[in-house]
Amino acid sequence: MSVIEQVIFVGTGCSSNTPALKCLLENPPTCEVCLLSLTEEGWKNRRKNPSVLIRVRDHRDPNGRLRNILVDCGKTFYQSALDIFPRYGIREIDALILSHGHADAVLGLDDLRAWTSGGTLQESVPVYLNEETFAVVSRAFPYLVSKANATGGGEVASFQFTVIKGNEQFEVAGLDITPLPVHHGKFMSTGEPYWCFGYRFGKQLSCITDANYIPPETLEKMKNSEILIVDCLREAPYMSHFGLHQAIDVVKDLKARHNYLIGMAHNLEHEDLSQRLSVFAKDLDLHISPAYDTLKVDVLADGYVRESSWRE
Ligand SMILES: [Zn+2]
Ligand SMILES: [Zn+2]
After folding, report:
1. What span, in angstroms and rounded, lies between the C-alpha atoms of 289 and 270?
2. Residue 38, exposed/middle/buried by CB under 10 A (0-12, 13-18, 19+)?
3. Where does the record place the Metallo-beta-lactamase domain (predicted)?
């Protein structure tokens, strides 16, 4: 069985990032977290759209390079990629897995031309996504779904799309991947939930980038994960995202050994949140902290982790 050896947080903010433009455009700006994020000591508050890179040792090629599975590729992917790929010596993207069709999850697709144009790094990027997300991508990027729709010099990213279902496992680099369907807000017109997919990677990791509700049958599929990555937008619950206490409830429920919050908006300050979470961590006897952009987590053979960032 393939194993995850490394998890890198490409982006850990919400759709509008931190600093939030609206805060800096105030005259004068008053938002303490956004102002702090501009300083050298406050850099962990600079957060871009949520995205995670999962690095896997393929059991069929144990001496080969780690395989790179990217979860989501949103509006800020280009900037994040500049901060991550060269700094950590990462090149290929062996698969891109999309959670849903919102701008902060898919709008970076166009920038993947850097990987495939002229076959620089690879011929194409395999993309796994649900039907609804594929419809969004087809409308937003018709030339990425079919080159017949390209109009320029044809220097566009090349993808192999696989449409997946919520109840079917698939496999990348010898790792079983299980979709984790969750609610991420609802349609205003009908009140029906908007479904987003989290994913479970092998036995080790469950990752929910965007959710305001996890159905019991999905929670069941997340049990006994060693690492949990879970959405936490702000202090209070929000219509389409978990608030802090909801995220902590999921952590309490699943009791993974290592827990990381992702998707934080500008009103959660990194150091303050870390300290508050450390109290819960002590009570629950597990590790829980806010992730930050560029955080690299090495997953050790004994199940422990080692955290670092090139910025430190
Ligand atoms: Zn702000
Ligand atoms: Zn979303």
Report:
1. 9
2. middle
3. 67-263
Distance between Cα 15 and ligand 1 center (Å): 13
Q: Give the tens place of pLDDT for each residue, 138-173.
A: 999 999 998 788 887 768 889 999 999 999 999 999
- Ligand nearest the Cα atom of residue 106: 2
CA-CA distances (angstroms) from residue 69 to 115, 128, 161?
14, 11, 15
Q: How many angstroms does the Cα of residue 233 sit away from the middle of ligand 2?
A: 11
Q: What distance in angstroms lies between residue 57's CA and the mean position of ligand 1's atoms? A: 39
**Tens of pLDDT, residues 23-70:** 999 999 999 999 999 999 999 999 999 999 999 999 999 999 999 999
**Amino acid at site 188:** M
36 CA from centroid of ligand 1 (Å): 9
CB atoms within 10 A of CB 310: 11
